[in-house]
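lol so apparently i was supposed to do this last week
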Amino acid sequence: MRTTGISEKVYYIGVNDRTTHKFEGMWPLPMGVSYNSYLVAGEDKAAIIDGVEVRHALSQISHIKAILGDRKPDYLIINHMEPDHSGAIKILRAEFPDITIVGNTQTLGMVKGFYGIDDINTLPVKDGDTLSLGADTTLRFALTPMVHWPETMVTYLVEEQTLFSGDAFGCFGALSGAVLDTDMDTDPYFPEMLRYYSNIVGKYGTFVQRALAKLKNLSLSTICSTHGPVWRSRIGEVVDLYDRLSRYEPLDNGVTIVYGSMYGNTEAMAEAVAEGLAEEGVRKISFLNASVTDLSYIIAEIFRHKGLVLASPTYSDGLFPPVNAVVDAIETRGIKNRITALVGSNTWAPRAAKLLGERIDENGIERVSDPISIKQSATSTDLENLRELGRTLARRLNCE
Ligand code: FEO
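anyway here it is w/ MU-OXO-diiron bound
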């Protein structure tokens, strides 16, 4: 893709990746992903902010040369060291050997750790430090640890109220022609922001809240994150979404039903719960087979909806492994503020219901009743009990 001017001094020099199958080796990328990199060209100095993944290094370099011509970039500012943004450092440095790497002490340690290079010009920065690139071009740094790694920071171009936010406010989805949100339909990126946040950053809600508090008094005209569109017209919505998600606040009173089923018996139980929910007026129901739907979409729906139904067979005296993976993911992210209903099934050893109850309790998540445990196939009485479980959950949600 070509370079794009975001302002007279700020340029987009990032790349699209539509070939990587799974981000971090785990998360599917049906819309691809962009690795956003920016160039701020001041009167005296030029700075690259954020990098690209190693396979895209040459594209980034050609973008830099297209803008700067014979001038060389003076600084590489690293807001975040995850290799989707730092992978091209060695190649960039080979091309521009005099470049100074700007980062905090943790960043610079990781530059050595990942890439084995410490014979470089570096400029360590602390929270609140500034760097002038010339008249009316002042960069200010703010440390935002654990959004999404310990070294993460953001960079603010003071005179243009432009925030280079690292992963914060980012989303999956390559950029299809335009870079600024004003020049595209950004609606398709919002579900991908939910999936990106909930899976990648979802564990670090407390730290995101701290970062948001730190940034609260900044005027923001433009947000340049490391993934997805550059935000200008929808800044309020994007910041609000990150704020709600990092407080583990559901986006609606719908229900996510996650079930596992080998031969359809547990699926029939989950369907009965869904019928009860629908009878009591729940209209947003995400009904997800844990064996079929990718975990990342399940986690996103759990972040979206207030209600959660888990239905699992007993398997090898434990939870059915695909459902177990979902419960693990809930635990890892410390998801809270949800109301659950639980169903366990078994053929001879009634373990699943007990385990679901214990694990939801351990994580401090509310449940509307004791888990329902059903042996082999649900009877008509069992099905009615499951419908009533759905109705109970719906009534509880409707009171919220
Ligand atoms: Fe886009 Fe945490 O790296």
